[in-house]
Design goal:
825 residues; alpha+beta; four-stranded mixed sheet; 29 helices; 16% strand
Length: 825
């Protein structure tokens, strides 16, 4: 009987054992070698539960090839020998994987290409990088274009300069191009090439073949691909990234040995110069691969070492697709979602995140008077419909648009701010908002949007700031050369900038001190921006788009606006969705929020794509997008970490506490204490100040028109100075200066001492100590104090029996300097 039970147990367990057994795959699954010098690196990877592990397989792997007269194997590489077909066999244990191998054109000597081979070797070796000869001034009198973006220039430099000594056609080894990087001659850059290496042979063969230059008939690189595109790994695993280049003549070439590799998150994985990635931590990361001005990502998923039942995810509440995508990722990473926060936390959190202030006790009472099942949704609707929503989001967009009284005249500041406020109040769709700015014309005191062009007065500045603000793209590097990490070229930069070349203005502009500040913006029918590297205009075109006629007299910005705000633009909806996400969740899906380059991948790419698609589907209605985020269970999670999610900080298994932004913190202090701040000066660079009458008593910090208002508190707590279009200008870092300012600075203590504040009113109304503590907790935290908190503060009050006012001030100070008050959680 016991034996029968044991056998049944084995039968029941066997399917699970089989499911856990790894299978194996060879990448690539088919090898085509084109040319006598063709080589393909391959990798044997594990497949578990349908997911490619890409882990480097045990060294006991056996590899052979059926016909070594057609191709040979050397260190996980297949090399062409002669035309024909054969089979590569890789055996792991009892499993053998067969890979077809086809060799063609092996009888035709391969002609090394300067454009595709020589420049790739120079880039791989670091010769054309910014730290070496790719610097603007070059090194040692030898200057190459950065990463080889200008083949004609580089060919001329190598073959014509230095009296031709860099190339010796009769004896390639004596060429400076080979003698210096191999150490045969002194080289300040050290040894970059090994004599006899594959890269050495490419350069030597090119010289021996006549050192031919780039030609119009050269095969052009279309794209690069990686294998595996996504790999599931574990800490300690190693994974080889393979790279293939696809050319317009149909060839697919292994360029792993010529590619540059870097890790996007070295806390998860690191990668060496040959594309071998080593996993060091858990999470999602990627290897950025660069070859021939093309970039691509090889993604890696490394689950955390927690054991979480599938039932946990199945039982988790799901309100919309945000929760679906978030839980999919948490399941993939073995992270547990924190439970829902309580109603009090949600009330305070959502109010701060949506309208930039604390909920009042009266609002709290109204919130809790609604049915528990609907109170959160009803509160969200009140937030989105409030006037404080208009003030808060006008301020946030003013940060992005750089409304700054040191750079604009007072009338321009006010008009620009009021223009933004009017659009926020009307809930103007985001695409229309951006279109109005891009195509603005008229007087700066009548059409506030024209002041975008007062702040950015050259076509280059207009281009860079529009791309940064509305697309999350920093293309400034392409002003001088092809972008080193992205696909944007120097030609694309000037084609884009030429769209702004005919913007003109007359009247006052510049700083905000003198004159009436009125400018009239118009568009000329002629005029172009000269591209310095070519000495002629680049045909005007949006990024990745065909050019328009250069002699077309119509406003080119209309074409730009159509392209930028199009539902098909791959950046526009992503950029604003990411900004909104960062506001409500504490960090962007892409971080920094305005850095949407390929080499900075999203922490949850499927979720960001769905958010962008949803925004397009709702016609760029930002309030609807905010509602979606606020209603999600992902947003409404507790900020208290569980043991099974404590190590992570970017996958949103919980809400991340963060310090209140400077303006919100100052307004919250005033709101709790019953005071107001005075804003009477504009601070210009160089400590020069000028009086302003823009702001009446009672104006909140979140209602200020611009960032030039003099306020030591706001500056100390990291407000955005609005000097450059970058969210990085705002700081949420904590510092000792902030602590000292709250402790004994001239902001909090004078407010506590004011006669008619909440403390004075409490004394006048003869509130008991317990009543005062309860009132202050409701004002500051939207909750009742617990018994321990009450006892602690009542003990403070008891120490001041003869000076009640000081006791109430000290108790209030304790509340306002606490982490619970200064953070949103």
């Amino acid at each position: 009987m016991a034996a029968a039970v044991a056998w049944i147990a084995i039968l029941l367990w066997q399917p699970y054992v089989i499911a856990e057994q790894p299978q194996y795959r060879v990448l690539p699954a088919r090898i085509v070698l084109d040319g006598s010098d063709s080589v393909q690196q391959f990798s044997v990877v594990e497949v578990r539960r349908g997911q490619v592990s890409a882990r480097v397989v045990d060294p006991s792997l056996k590899i052979d090839i059926d016909d070594d007269s057609i191709a040979m194997i050397n260190d996980r590489q297949v090399r062409a020998i002669s035309n024909g077909a054969t089979t590569l066999r890789c055996s792991v244990g009892d499993e053998t994987i067969e890979v077809p191998v086809v060799v063609q054109n092996a009888d035709s000597p391969y002609q090394q290409s300067f454009r595709n081979d020589v420049q790739s070797v120079l880039a791989k070796a670091g010769c054309s990088m910014g730290a070496c000869h790719g610097a603007l001034a070059g090194k040692g009198g030898f200057r190459l274009s950065l990463r080889g973006y200008d083949p004609a220039h580089d060919y001329n430099t190598i073959t014509r300069e230095a009296r031709g000594r860099r190339i010796e056609l009769a004896d390639p080894g004596r060429s400076l191009l080979l003698a210096k990087p191999t150490g045969a001659l002194p080289h300040k850059g050290g040894i970059k090439l090994e004599t006899g290496s594959r890269h050495y042979r490419i350069l030597a063969d090119w010289i021996a073949q006549g050192a031919k230059g780039p030609a119009d008939t050269d095969a052009r690189l279309q794209k690069i691909t990686v294998m595996p595109e996504v790999a599931t790994l574990a800490p300690g695993d190693q994974s080889q990234v393979l790279v293939q280049a696809h050319y317009d003549d149909g060839r697919v070439v292994d360029v792993t040995h010529l590619s540059k590799f870097s890790a996007t998150d070295e806390s998860v994985a690191r990668v060496d110069n040959e594309g071998l990635a080593t996993v060091v931590g858990s999470g999602e990361a990627a290897v950025l691969v660069w070859f021939g001005s093309k970039v691509v990502l090889a993604r890696m998923v490394v689950p955390y070492q927690f054991q979480i039942a599938d039932s946990v995810y199945a039982a988790s509440a799901k309100r919309n697709f945000i929760d679906e995508e978030n839980l999919n990722q948490l399941r993939k990473l073995n992270l547990a979602p924190s439970p829902r926060c309580d109603d009090t936390v949600f009330l305070r959190r959502s109010t701060l995140d949506t309208i930039g202030r604390l909920p009042t006790p009266a609002e709290r009472d109204r919130f809790f008077s609604d049915p528990p099942q609907t109170r959160r949704d009803l509160w969200i609707e009140r937030l989105l419909a409030s006037e404080d929503f208009v003030s808060y989001w006008t301020y946030r967009w003013s940060d992005m648009l750089l409304i700054n009284g040191t750079r604009l005249r007072p009338v321009a500041v006010k008009t620009y701010y009021q223009w933004v406020r009017d659009r926020v109040r009307k809930n103007q769709p985001w695409d229309e908002f951006v279109r109005e700015i891009l195509t603005a014309t008229g007087r700066s005191d009548e059409n506030g949007a024209t002041n975008f062009y007062a702040l950015h007065q050259s076509p280059e500045d207009m281009t860079e700031n529009a791309c940064q603000a509305f697309l999350g793209l920093s293309i400034g590097c392409a002003k001088c050369h092809n972008h080193p990490l992205e696909k944007w070229t120097n030609d694309q930069y000037y084609a884009m900038a030429n769209l702004f070349a005919r913007v003109r203005a007359k009247g006052w502009g510049g700083d905000g001190r003198n004159g009436d500040g009125i400018r009239t913006l118009f568009v000329s029918a002629a005029g172009d921006l000269i591209q310095p590297n070519r000495g002629r205009p680049q045909p005007p075109a949006p990024l990745d788009s065909p050019p328009i006629e250069i002699d077309d007299p119509s406003d080119r910005r209309l074409v730009l606006a159509d392209w930028m705000t199009s539902p098909d633009n791959p950046y526009f909806a992503r950029s604003i969705s990411n900004r909104l996400w960062a506001n409500f969740f504490g960090r962007g899906l892409v971080e920094e929020v305005d850095d949407l380059r390929l080499s900075n991948p999203a922490s949850n790419e499927p979720l960001l794509k769905k958010l962008a698609d949803h925004l397009v589907a709702i016609d760029f209605d930002l309030k609807q997008q905010m509602r979606l985020m606020l209603q999600s269970e992902t947003y409404q999670r507790s900020s208290i970490a569980l043991p099974e999610n404590k190590p992570e900080s970017k996958y949103h298994s919980r809400y991340y506490p963060r310090r209140l932004m400077a303006e919100v913190l100052l307004d919250s202090i005033d709101q709790v204490v019953g005071t107001s701040s005075q804003f009477t000066e504009i601070a210009f660079p160089g400590a020069d100040k000028q009086k302003t009458d823009f702001y009446s008593t009672g104006t909140k910090a979140i209602e200020l028109y611009d960032s030039a208002v003099n306020s030591y508190f706001l500056k100390t707590f990291g407000r955005n100075p609005r000097e450059i279009t970058c969210e990085c200008e705002r700081s949420e870092e904590q510092s000792m200066v902030q602590v000292l300012h709250l402790s004994n600075g001239d902001t909090l203590n004078p407010k506590l001492a004011m006669e008619n504040n909440v403390i004075g009113n409490a004394i006048d109304n003869d509130l008991s100590g317990r009543e005062f503590v309860r009132m202050m907790f409701l004002r500051a935290f939207a909750r009742e104090p617990n018994e321990q908190e009450s006892r602690r503060l009542l003990a403070i009050l008891a120490e001041y029996e003869t000076d009640r006012r000081t006791g109430l001030e000290d108790a209030t100070w304790s509340i306002l300097t606490s982490a619970e008050f200064t953070f949103n959680y």
